[in-house]
Amino acid sequence: QVQLVESGGGLVQAGGSLRLSCAASVRTFSRSAMGWFRQAPGKEREFVAAIVWSGRITYYADSVKGRFTISRDTAKNTGYLQMNILKPEDTAVYYCTAGNPEVVTSDRFWEYWGQGTQVTVSS
Q1: What is d(CA 60, CA 46) in angstroms, rounded to the nearest whole number?
Q2: Beta strand 4-7 with 18-24: parallel, antiparallel or unpaired?
Q3: DSSP letters spanning 42-76
Q4: From the DSSP assignment, how many helices (H) and strands (E) are in the chain?
Q5: Distance of CA 98 to the CA centre of its chain
Q6: Please, are residues 115 and 52 in contact by the beta-carbon 8 Å criterion?
């Protein structure tokens, strides 16, 4: 069974940086796309970023473009989300996801999900 475990969340001040990690328990799962969604209190889950298995194509929500960078280490079966210049509006639970979605920006097209990690950005 594939398990995704996020880590690296925490409380940071506005303008700070944080790197989230997403470790997959099954190495054979590495040849799939990986992505990040987030959900703030009272809000719907929204797309943040995604990367195909080769790492050559990435996608970003407009709200994080230029500040966040998604990457993956195939050998370690781990994905990352580097978050820079964090803003209070980035506060949310961040979820790692994996699969082979036809539509990357919709959470309906992803198969596996992590438990989420809290990111809180103070002003």
Answers
A1: 11
A2: antiparallel
A3: TS--EEEEEE-TTSS-EEE-TTTTTTEEEEEETTT
A4: 0, 11
A5: 10
A6: no
The two tokens of residue 14 are 């506005």
Two tokens, residue 7: 């880590």
Encode burial over 8-37: b for 16+ CB neighbours within 10 A, e otherwise: bbeebeeeeebebbbbbeeeebbebbbbbb
List the structure tokens of 100. Answer: 């082979």
- Spatial neighbors of 73 by CB under 8 A, at least 6 apart, are 79, 80
3-state helix, strand, coil in the chain (%, to 5): 10, 50, 45
Looking at per-residue pLDDT, the higher value among 73 and 65 belongs to 65
Tokens 């709200």 sit at which residue? 63
pLDDT at 86 over 90: yes
**Rounded percentage of the chain residues whose pLDDT exceeds 90:** 81
59/49 Cα distance (integer angstroms): 5
Structure tokens at 119: 């990111």
